[in-house]
Amino acid sequence: MIKQNILIVDDHRENLIALEAILEDPARNLIMASSGQEALQLALKHDLALVLLDVQMPGMDGFEVARLMRNNRKTKAVPIIFVTAISKESKYVFKGYECGGVDYLFKPIDQQILTAKVEMFLEMDMQRRKLQQAVVQMKRLKDENERLLRAMGDCVIGTDEKGLITFCNDAAGYLFGEDRDKLIGGKIDNLLFRDEDQALRWSFADSPMVASCGSGRSWRSTDPLYVHTSGDVKSVSVSANSLNLPGEPFSGVVIVVRDVSEHQSSAEQLAREGRRFSRKKMFREMVLFDRGTGLNIGRLLNISVDGFKLFTRQALQEDTVFQLSMVLPEQIFGVNTLSFNARNVWSEEQDGDGEYHAGFQFVDLSDTHRNIIKALMEKY
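-> structure tokens emitted (380 positions)
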């Protein structure tokens, strides 16, 4: 259990002992200071939940301590309760509030009032900490989900209950020949649900996808659907899962779209799975070089006819087109090296200091190079 720190500031030793006796608790860490200068040093050293600050102290009084705390980024939000034996005139109270105090206690201190106020501010501090933890956790989950979406080779699209696209990954942008951000807000009907002649097979509301997912079940296309981009027609398989649980109002779907234009047989798929280990071993040896500078850009992590993923030790600028070359693990179609242009679509820092993963898409890959990559994937 993390203890909450309370800083108690008073230039009289007996007052510190009295406050310590009242506030001592296993869940609290009481920090004592006998001067304003010492209080500032301790405030910067510890993560404080509350400060009980005596006003009348020699040298630097409580008002000055409060002003300096409010001007420091680390301590400006820490609640300060002034403890004073001076006159209760409003001008002194106003001065305390002007200096950043949140409350006033007058000596002699009423133990019940002190306890109640301290418990209230400690509860507020605990709620603040829980909120900060929740924000950090949400950001971590968001980052993890974003990395997952980017890492997936399949196209992933999310829609609301009306079929409007709410999110998608980079693979979706590539499959549909459109910038990822421009797909957001568009109708899923315009991308899917078409036959080979581009005729709309279903609207989103009338589709079997919504009929199934609307009741909280998953759905998978039994007949191929088609994607039309720049005169090219691709056959795709589509599966979807509802965002809502059974019995809940329909709120949208998460759709996975896979290009099956070059469908593989089960035997071919099993053979590829059996070669997974040799592929990983091969990737450890394959390094990409910038043809313009001759510098090592990074090590290959995976590759497909659409693009590849690198391990690199530099933050690469997104949307930059690189002129790259790599040495093949063996001669393929009489070629020992492969040269091509590729655009960096994302770059993310990893846990290790100065380590990055980066995703690339091929730019104008020739048919010869595409066949070499296919042969490379088939062999390894």
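Residues 4-129 form a domain with the Rossmann fold fold (CATH 3.40.50.2300).
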